[in-house]
Each structure stands twice: as structure tokens, then as C-alpha cells.
Amino acid sequence: MTAAAPAATPAAAPAAAKGGPASYFPSIEKKYGRPIEEWKGLIRTSPLVRHMELVAWLKTEHGLGHGHANALVAHTLAEETA
Q1: SS3 76
Q2: Separation between Cα atoms, residue 70 and residue 75, nearest integer Å
Q3: Mean pLDDT (the chain, rounded)
Q4: How far, in Å, CA of 45 to CA of 38, rounded?
Q5: Is 36:28 a contact under the CB 8 Å cutoff?
Q6: pTM of the model
Q7: 29-57: per-residue pLDDT in tens?
Q8: Which residues neighbour 50 within 8 Å (Cβ) at sequence distance 6 or greater?
Q9: Is 23 helix (H, G, I), strand (E, B) or coil?
Q10: Dihedral (C-alpha) 30, 31, 32, 33: value to the nearest 10 degrees?
Q11: Tag placement on the chain: N or C end, fewer CB within 10 Å?
Q12: Distance CA 9, CA 13 (A)
């Protein structure tokens, strides 16, 4: 008997696990046409401070999807507290 080959894993899975929110950045820039630093600047200058308020604002005012908005907010707020 021969052992079965291990199942292939999606290429994005290791990057997502390693990169956290930042792993979304290339697709955010490609999809929305703005550099990540511009998005972070918008988040930092917003009068909103709570995570989910900022996510909702990015979704409604700027048309981001939930995952992309969440990644940007999580990364930006983490930088603020570091």
C-alpha cells in the first residue's frame, strides 16, 4: 500500500494566517484604487473611534466590503495602541 498524497492547501491560507489584516492590503489597493496609507489616514482623522463604527463608516461612505474595512480598521487601531 502507498500513502496518499497530502491534500493541497490554498495558496492564500498561509499568507492570511501569517499576515493577519495586512494580508488583505494588496487586494484592497487593487480593488479600491487607493494606497493603504490613504485609507489609514482617513481612519485616523475620522471623528469615530470605535472599531465597528469605523468599519460601518468605511462600508457606507466608501463602499468597502466588510472584510476589507475590518482589516484596515484592525491594523490601524493596532498601530495606534502599539
Answers
A1: helix
A2: 8
A3: 85
A4: 11
A5: yes
A6: 0.76
A7: 999 999 999 999 999 999 999 999 999 99
A8: none
A9: helix
A10: 30
A11: N
A12: 7
